[in-house]
Amino acid sequence: MSDTLAPNPPGGAAPPAQPMFHVPGEHHPKNGTLLGFWVYLMSDCLIFACLFATYGVLGRNYAAGPSGADLFDLQLVAVNTALLLLSSITYGFAMLEMRRNRVGATQLWLAVTGILGLGFLSLELYEFSHLIHQGAGPQRSAFLSSFFTLVGTHGLHVTFGIVWLVTMMIQVQMHGLIPENRRRLMCLSMFWHFLDLIWVGVFTFVYLMGVLP
């Protein structure tokens, strides 16, 4: 930003100097949205790192209650994991169709991704309901408190991702694959794949290691 002073009129007293501001060029950096979203994802990584560290400290404090080996149903969790990983593939198909400028195919794969995400959330809510019905709620022990916090935070992110996905489907339907919608779909793609990566850590660190004696 630069400033200049208005010239004095010829003859007579000079008026008070009035600054004139001028911003040359575009002040928004190229790909600034994607860079800003990367910064957000890094901050989200810190949140999940704290939750993983908390679970690592408290994950064996059962307070004479059930352990992960007593509670976890690995078959159910494996199906849930497959749904989320498959949704990452279908979102990749949506991005390929977006590059080909095919609105209908892009919408189709986005819808499939949303359905798989809803299936993941449904099984997760069923698991939480089943655990609470067994008396293994988050207040039962430090292990269960950290478990519900970590897995629930991830589920909340998936919920926000589905809301964002539905919003983008409406935007694409109304305005097509304009540059703004392409950029937003790219950001959502990074977010969705990030959630898959976090879930792989949850599945390994919480569920697989949790059933070990």
From TrEMBL:
A GO CC annotation given for this chain: plasma membrane
Stretches with biased composition (Pro residues): 7-18
Ranges for domain Heme-copper oxidase subunit III family profile: 30-211
Subcellular location: Cell membrane
InterPro entries (UniProt xref): Cyt_c/ubiquinol_Oxase_su3, Cyt_c_oxidase-like_su3, Cyt_c_oxidase_su3-like_sf, Cyt_c_oxidase_su3_a-hlx, Cyt_c_ubiqinol_oxidase_su3, Ubiquinol_oxase_su3_dom
Membrane topology: Multi-pass membrane protein
Chief place where the protein resides: membrane
Keyword annotations of the record: Cell membrane, Electron transport, Membrane, Oxidoreductase, Transmembrane, Transmembrane helix, Transport
GO molecular function, one term: cytochrome bo3 ubiquinol oxidase activity
Pfam families the record matches: COX3 (PF00510)
GO BP, one annotated term: aerobic electron transport chain
Signal peptide stretch: none
Residues spanning the membrane: 37-57, 77-96, 108-126, 146-170, 191-212
Region (Disordered): 1-22
Keyword Transport: yes
Assembly description: Heterooctamer of two A chains, two B chains, two C chains and two D chains.
The family this protein is said to belong to: Belongs to the cytochrome c oxidase subunit 3 family.
Function per UniProt: Cytochrome bo(3) ubiquinol terminal oxidase is the component of the aerobic respiratory chain of E.coli that predominates when cells are grown at high aeration. Has proton pump activity across the membrane in addition to electron transfer, pumping 2 protons/electron.
Annotated protein name in UniProt: Cytochrome bo(3) ubiquinol oxidase subunit 3
Organism expressing this protein natively: Achromobacter pestifer
Source lineage: Bacteria, Pseudomonadati, Pseudomonadota, Betaproteobacteria, Burkholderiales
Gene that encodes the chain: cyoC
